[in-house]
Every structure is written in structure tokens, then in C-alpha cells.
Write a structure and sequence with these properties.
alpha/beta; three-stranded parallel beta sheet; 3 strands
Length: 136
Amino acid sequence: MYNYTWYRNFSPQTIAIIGGGLSGTLVAVNLMKNATTPLIIKLIERRKEIGKGIAYSTTIDGHLLNVPAGKMSAFADKPNHFLDWLQANGHHNVTENTFISRKIYGNYIQAVLEQAQANAPTQVHFEKITDEAIAH
Ligand SMILES: Cc1cc2nc3c(=O)[nH]c(=O)nc-3n(C[C@H](O)[C@H](O)[C@H](O)COP(=O)(O)OP(=O)(O)OC[C@H]3O[C@@H](n4cnc5c(N)ncnc54)[C@H](O)[C@@H]3O)c2cc1C
């Protein structure tokens, strides 16, 4: 009989995520944080930078988020995560009611991804593929 448990423990699963904007990047982050078995994550993004998508790729400081900083944490269970990151990265005057630039928010999402990669268990492998996913 096929031993599924053995297979699960030793052979990594591969998950491909198409689109490395906000949602795809946070899916990758949560997979890295919660993986309990060997896992290969492939994040396919056609833009050079991941984590930003259309909304957070802007380089213009005046392009602000339409939601205040106190409500833009990447993690529902850590509502102050974005605020804490801002404080730790030199934005000392912000409060939960400040509207931060979308550019900075993109940097935050990238930092969240880097942190998740740094903390990922050794059995989790993350790979970014810069390309366009197409049907064939
Ligand atoms: C101008 C603008 C301003 C916004 N401002 C706010 C705001 O202030 N606050 C807020 O909460 N929301 C805002 N939004 C909404 C915001 O886009 C979403 O909150 C969020 O970014 C959506 O995430 P997403 O991952 O679905 O899409 P995106 O972040 O756009 O990511 C999709 C990614 O998929 C990639 N992709 C698509 N097809 C392929 C393919 N075939 N192969 C490879 N890569 C592919 C794209 O290049 C892109 O990077 C704004 C949106 C826009 C357009």
C-alpha cells in the first residue's frame, strides 16, 4: 500500500503563485510562515519588483494610500505591524491616522517578504521567477 505520510514528510510540494503584487506576495509570506512540511514556493511576477503591483509601484511621494496607516497592516492578527515598521524605519511622526505614500507601502510589503524569507524553515524554499505566466 502507498505510504502517503512518508511521501508528505520527505517530498516537497510545489506551489506556484501567478502574480507577485500585494496578494500573491502575502500568499507566499503566509505559506512560508505556516509551512509544516517541505515546500517549494514559486512566485511568478512579470514586473522586476515583487510586492508592489500597479498600486504600489508609483515613485511619486504624493500618491497616498486611501486607508490610514493603522488599518494597513499586512497581518490581521498584528494590527500595529505596519505602524511599528514605519517607526522602526525612520517615520517617527506617523500615527494610526496618517495617510502614508503608496511607495512606502510597497517598500513595507517587500520588507515583509524579506523577513518571511529570513525566518522560513529550512524545509521551505522560495523562488522568484521574473516572467509572464501564459496558457499553452
Ligand atoms: C492606482 C491604484 C491605487 C490604489 N490604492 C490603494 C490604496 O490606497 N489602498 C488599498 O487598499 N488599495 C489600493 N488599490 C487597490 C490595490 O491594487 C489592491 O489593494 C492590491 O494591490 C491588489 O493586489 P493584487 O495582488 O490583487 O493586484 P496587484 O497588486 O496589481 O498584483 C497583480 C500582479 O500580478 C502580475 N501579473 C498579472 N498577470 C500576470 C502574469 N500572467 N504573469 C506574471 N505576472 C502577472 C502583475 O504584474 C501584478 O504585479 C489601488 C489600486 C490602484 C490601481
